Amino acid sequence: MSTQVFGWSKTEAEDSAAVREFASDVRNGLAKSQKELHSKYLYDELGSSLFESITHLPEYGLTRADERLLQRHARDIASLLPSRVAIIELGSGVGQKTRHLLQAIGNPLRYYPIDVSADALARCERDLADVAEVHPLVQSYLDGMARATAERQPDESFLVMFLGSTIGNFERKCALEFLRDLRRALLPGDMLLIGADLVKDRDRMLVAYDDPTGVTGAFNLNLLGRINRELGADFRLRDFEHQARWNEDQRRIEMHLRSRVDQTVRIAEADLTVNFRADETIWTESSHKFQLSELDALAEQTGFRVEDQWVDRDWPFAENLWAVS
Ligand code: AVJ
Questions:
Q1: Of the N and C termini of the chain, which has fewer Cβ atoms inside 10 Å?
Q2: How far is the CA of 19 from the centre of ligand 1 (A)?
């Protein structure tokens, strides 16, 4: 997003710029031969709350593993941080997982959560007010980073947190580029705490993204609902079906929305009419899964040094502490 928004009071001009950008992304994405929509658009207010529900599903162990590691090792992690530190979190959501670490650090602390969901950030600010001075940023990751690091105090270092395996949503090549950009926004002494979901049993991965309760399906289909609401489209959600696939070559789960029938959809605000053949899909998200060795290589290729790593045994997931090298 190009708008520089602080807090959650967007002006009308910023709102309409965001709608135009959404419309243009939808137009470009649906013009491709494999139709696609960017996964960041899954997180409107309803989508964010559906994702929050996903984190409670027994089949989706990822978030609980992440939180277990942060809770169990909060003191270890805190002991490895620079003495004067401020925290930036990319894609914080409500920031629940971060509480343990903020508490373990103890001293008065500036915390900059960055997220696309203003609602989640409002809750985050409320919930964490007792453990940090919260400065919410409704911005893209790198814009928010620039905003936060501009407030660096003398002798202060930043810890950037990128939890929940959100890095897995990037194509592997884009993850590399993104981490390099992130590195460029930091200084020696700064650190990155990055969570990554590990490759595990195929059926376990698949059911985590295709739960029998149907919450993930609702989360995925809501993207079409959002296009109806914000871009005046006429998607019939019942004529689409949620699909999760394991892509073995790319080691990633892909979510798709499969058209059940031949159909035509009108998206007024994008001035677009789209045809779907029965069985054709819109690709809405990739969640790449990692090998431990791959994570160390990723650090090295992007200008970081591995400081420590913690792995959950019940749900293979790795928390990685890297330092700017
Ligand atoms: C929040 C991006 C890590 O990819 O596992 C959950 C999002 N999508 N179920 C993930 C998600 C479907 C999640 N991340």
A1: C
A2: 24
